[in-house]
TrEMBL record:
InterPro entries: Glutamic_endopeptidase, Neprosin, Neprosin_propep
Organism: Centaurea solstitialis
Pfam families membership: Neprosin, Neprosin_AP
PANTHER family named in the record: NEPROSIN (PTHR31589:SF253), PROTEIN, PUTATIVE (DUF239)-RELATED-RELATED (PTHR31589)
Domain Neprosin PEP catalytic: 61-311
Signal peptide feature range: none
Name the record gives this protein: Neprosin PEP catalytic domain-containing protein
Length: 312
């Protein structure tokens, strides 16, 4: 997998009509804009601005919002200090102002207005990134999506690696009945500092300070994994948004999207296979999910779909 370097990204591509969310993002970007010391043009057209470590936006503070409409996920409940997984990468078709993602979550204070989440994976989000390439992303919130943000769009995540760019395009991507590609992600809680670290392909990327959170200052109560989409109402002018490969889970390897090697970190800092997994689907006519376990893949799920018949 290739993730283009370094700390922050600005896109060459311009979106013709700004959504309300993009207006918020643009306003916020003006607030957190930092002087960069060098710009690099990536092969996929991104202009990557390198900023000094101490000037990255993680050392400021406001907020953005995110919401989810449809999902196909697996989850487990317990006391967790990390989550490890391998995510199959695709480029699903996304309707205007929508997005499609595959990710892992850690969550605490789930039943309160102070829901805490840490999220990481890949997403296709044209109105945010300017094109339909799958991108490495992270997200966090400590107030039920009333604060927090993607990547480095607000203060919070502290990046320590100058070779991995959050929000950068992922290459290569899987093809139907063709080669399959994936990325490896690990999020775990440092028992000494209590901060939550992100590892991408065996590279430490940075951390979420424990002071960002309430419940996640201690541990996660849920781990979740799978796909989510947001899209406008489906009509002739608003085609459906695909999840995963755009094909249902039952088609299996090489056709449906998967997440495998699902493992959790326990209180002794040991990694164990996810057990007692529950599967949940919002709209089974649009997207579905299956799960299992074997010696080669450990605990795994297949999920996704074309997004048709969501009104049924």
């Amino acid at each position: 997998m290739i993730i283009l370097p370094v700390f922050s990204i600005r896109q060459n591509n311009q979106v013709s009509s700004e959504s309300e969310k993009m207006k918020l993002i643009r306003t916020h970007l003006k607030k957190i804009n930092k002087p960069f010391v060098k710009s690099i043009k990536s092969p996929d057209g991104d202009i990557i601005d390198c900023v000094p470590f101490h000037l990255q936006p993680a050392f400021d503070l406001p907020e953005l919002k995110s919401r989810v409409l449809l999902y196909a996920i697996g989850y487990a409940r317990g006391e967790y200090y990390g989550l490890n997984a391998t995510l199959n990468v695709w480029a699903p078709k996304v309707a205007a102002n929508g997005f499609s993602l595959s990710q892992i979550w850690l969550a605490a204070d789930v039943s309160s207005e102070d829901l805490n989440t840490i999220e990481a994976g890949w997403q296709v989000y044209p109105s945010l990134y300017g094109n339909d390439a799958p991108r490495l992303f992270i997200f966090w919130t400590s107030e039920n999506y009333k604060n927090g943000c993607y990547n480095l769009l607000c203060s919070g995540f502290v990046q320590t690696n100058n070779r991995v760019a959050l929000g950068a395009a992922i290459q290569p991507i899987s093809t139907y009945n063709g080669p399959q590609y994936d990325i490896k992600l690990l999020i775990w809680k440092d028992p000494k500092t209590n901060d939550w670290w992100l590892d991408f392909e065996n590279n430490l990327v940075g951390y979420w300070p424990s002071t960002l959170f309430t419940g996640l200052q201690e541990h996660a109560e849920f781990v979740e994994f799978g796909g989510e989409v947001v899209h406008s109402e489906i009509s002739d002018s608003h085609p459906p948004t695909q999840m995963g490969s755009g094909h249902f889970a039952g088609e299996g390897f090489g056709k449906a999207s998967f997440i495998k090697n699902l493992e959790v970190v326990d209180g002794l800092n040991k990694i164990n296979r996810v057990s007692d997994m529950t599967l949940q689907i919002d709209k089974p006519n649009c997207y579905d999910i299956t799960g299992g376990s074997n010696d080669d893949w450990g605990t795994y799920i297949y999920f996704g779909g074309p997004g048709n018949n969501c009104q049924n």
